[in-house]
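A quick aside before the break. I want you to see a complete sequence-to-structure record at least once, exactly as it would be stored in a machine-readable document. Don't worry about memorizing anything.
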Amino acid sequence: MRVVKKAEERRNEILDAADELFGQKGFDGTSTNDILEKVGIARGTLYYHFKSKEDIMDALIERYNVRLLGAAQEIAADKNVPVVERIISVVMALNLSGGSSQEIMEHIHKPQNALLHQKIQKVIIGGVTPILAEIIREGIQQGLFNTPYPHECMEMVVIYANTVFDDDMVPMTNEERVARIQAFVFNAERLLGAESGSLMNVMQMFGSGNEGSNE
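That is the input. The structure line, written in C-alpha cells, reads:
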C-alpha cells in the first residue's frame, strides 16, 4: 500500500535527505537520483516540491537562516540586558560551535560546498546587520555611541568578522587571532563613536583573547 504523506512532511523528508547527502558527498557530488533513492519517492514527487537541486539547497539555506539568526534575534529583543552585553552576545551567537551549529559549519566549510558557504555568508551579512544596527540605535539614544551610520557601521563589522574570523578564509595562529580581535574591537569603538575601551571587555568572550591578555 502506497504511503501518502502531507506536503510539509514530505518536503522536510526531502530536505533532511539532501542535507545528509550534501554533507557526505557535497552539493556537486549529490544527484537528484541520490535524493530520490534515499527518500524513496518518484521523480515527479520531488519536482512537485522543488524545481531543482539548486532549489533544494536554497530551502536548506533558509533552514540555516532560521537557526543562525533565531538566537541572535532573541538576544537582541531582551531589553533587560545592557546594550554592550547584547552586542557581544549577538556576535557570540554567530560564533557557531558545538551541537547542531557545529555540524552546520563543518558542512558548509567543505571545499565541495563552496556555493553553499557563500550563500550562508550572504544570509549572515543580510540578517545580522539590521539586528545589530537596532541595538546600536538604542546605544545612541543612551549616549553610548555617536554615529550617523549605525547600519553601515554594523555592516562593516559583520563583513569583517564573517571573513577574517573564518578559518577557511584567513588561516591564523593563536597570536595572530588575538591581535586581530584587539584591532577589531579597537576600530569598532571608533566606528561607533564609543568611549575608548568601552567595548574591550569583548576580549573576555574569546578564549584566545584571555590567553593573550595573561601573557
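Two observations worth writing down. The longest helix spans residues 114-141. Confidence is low (pLDDT under 50) at residues 96-101, 206-215. We'll return to this after the break.
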